[in-house]
Specification:
This protein has 218 residues and is mainly beta. The chain contains 4 helices and 12 strands. It binds fe (ii) ion.
């Protein structure tokens, strides 16, 4: 086998040694790669422009794709009579209510204050969509070797993502409200934490657990 060639000024990494890790420059590796396509919230659409074919009354009886989840979340976001009775806020414990759950999809109402923070997490095998109905949320996208990306999502906007998505949601404005739809329904989720040495770890948690930061890292 031919020995790996070193890029000018870069070490040849042939094994995992502490000195190799320290010499890497991940910020340079990903420079320029964080674009809007990498950040679903930056492709958020106007809820009012969505003409939903998928609603709670017209579910296809199978798992939904991202576009269908966006339609479903948008359709529910447009039903204040359904949402308002469940709206409540707490700085100490994020308020959320299950609006629907079946074999293929689950839908949640989430209420936010600026103190509410999910921490970094993924949704295991589920795709999802978020429709903001009141206030503004901030979506954070985890980046390694550079600052994480923050995108504000105001009321009236919605975005979707696949099961590859890792994010953190916080309430930017007091009394913010959002509708979240997932397919297949959330069952397990991954929460991310830093170990004592700074190594990133994933902890599998139940969908019924309240997501909150395990460590304070950005
Ligand atoms: Fe999430």
């Amino acid at each position: 086998m031919t020995a790996p060639m070193a890029a000018p000024g870069r070490p040849v990494v042939t094994g995992v040694r502490p000195q190799d890790v320290q010499e890497c420059d991940p910020a340079a590796d990903i420079a320029g790669r964080v674009d809007d396509q990498s950040v679903p919230a930056r492709s958020a659409v106007d809820i009012a422009a969505i003409r939903p074919a998928v609603t709670l009354c017209y579910l296809p009886g199978r798992d939904l794709d991202q576009a269908e989840l966006l339609e479903l979340a948008a359709s529910i976001a447009g039903q204040p009579d359904l949402l308002e009775p469940h709206v409540a806020f707490s700085d100490d414990k994020r308020h959320y209510v299950s609006l629907h759950r079946d074999t293929h999809v689950d839908v949640w109402l989430l209420c936010w204050t600026p103190s509410n923070d999910t921490g970094w997490h993924d949704h295991d095998i589920s795709s999802g969509a978020v429709a903001v109905t009141r206030g503004t949320l901030t979506e954070h996208n985890l980046a390694i070797g550079t600052q994480s990306v923050r995108t504000d999502v105001p009321a009236g906007a919605a975005f979707s993502f696949g099961p590859d998505h890792i994010h953190r949601l916080t309430g930017r404005d007091p009394d913010s409200v959002s509708v979240h739809a997932y397919s297949p329904p959330l069952w397990r989720m991954g929460q991310y934490t830093l170990g004592p040495s700074g190594v990133l770890r994933r902890r599998s948690v139940s969908y019924a657990d309240e997501l909150r930061p395990l460590d304070d890292f950005a």
